[in-house]
Structures are given as structure tokens and as C-alpha cells.
Amino acid sequence: MEEITEQISIIIFEVNKEQFAINLLEVKEIVQANQIRRLPKSFDFVEGIYNYRGEIIHIVNLKKKLNLNNTFLHKSKKISSNDEADQDSLGSTTNFIIILNIIDTFIGFLVDRIINVININRKSLVELSPIFQTSVGIEYVKGIIKLKDKPRILIDLSKVLNEAEHSTIKKELLSIM
């Protein structure tokens, strides 16, 4: 009997020079970040709101939410001057929003760059051991993907917001409309 290898498609993205992956099937759309409007009195990790195809959605800054401001999980290669030009601050056309539908609410996640979309064999995905340590909350991590150049954390963006945060965001949306 021939063994069928199961492939999954993942998106590799970068936040604060650290690369993560997400299952492509979880993603509604990826758009370039522009015209994010600030929201007063919102969570500090909510960058603002964005008009997504006529619907107002919240934009979560993953750098702030995952507390990656000063943390590097893996040392990145030295950035050349050309790369620095590509990684401007918020508002730059190199920032992207990964949009997911989480419990009937579209939520956008602000990331610095989209690196690649690739297919991997499910066998490349390693479950976490109880002693796994990372600065990213273990509750957000689905596993580690073994890739040739370096491993990537497969993150579950649907779990990045806890129930209370998701509820507050839904209430903010209702008050805006």
C-alpha cells in the first residue's frame, strides 16, 4: 500500500525580525496595510480600525500583543541597508494585514512582512514538548515546523485574543456602527 503524504500550505510572515507561520486555510485574505485609523480607549495592542471591503475591522499589532518589542526568538541575519528601506514603520506599504474570521468577526493582524507561501509535509510539523520555552505564549503555538534553513513557530492567530478581549472588540464594533 502506497503511503500518501499529506501537504499543508503555510504562510511565513515576519514580526519584529522574527518569522512565524500560519496555516493558509485559516486566512481570509492578506492586504497591504494602509489607512488604519486609531481608536481612543482601546487595548494598547489594537492599532486601530480598518475598512475591509466596506466592513470595519480591528487591527491587532502582533508585535505588541505577542510582546515582541525587544525579544528575538532567533537571531536574524544582519539587515542590509536595502532591507532596512523595506522595513519602515507603520504606514509603510511593506506592512501587511492578515485577516481572519474569528467567531464571526473579521480581525486583522498587522505584520511587518509576508515572506512566502509554501507547502510542507505534515511530518515537518513537530508537537511541542512540555519543556518547550519561548517568549511567545505557549497557548498561541500549534507546533514547530522543521524547515531547511531554520524552524518556524506555527502560530494560532485565532487564540491570540482571549475571550474577554474578543468580546470587548465586538462591543466596540457595535458602538462604531
For the report, how would you describe the main beta sheet? 6 strands, mixed
**Regions with little confidence, pLDDT below 50 for 5+ residues:** 73-93
Mean pLDDT: 80
The CATH homologous superfamily is named CheA-289, Domain 4
How many individual helices? 3
**Domain tally:** 1
Helix content: 10-25%
Strand order of the largest sheet: 8-1-2-11-10-9
Number of E strands: 11
What class do helices, strands and sheet pairing give? mainly beta
Q: Looking at CATH, which topology would you report?
A: OB fold (Dihydrolipoamide Acetyltransferase, E2P)
Q: How does the overall form come out from the CA principal axes?
A: globular
Order of helices and strands: EEEEEHHEEEEEEH
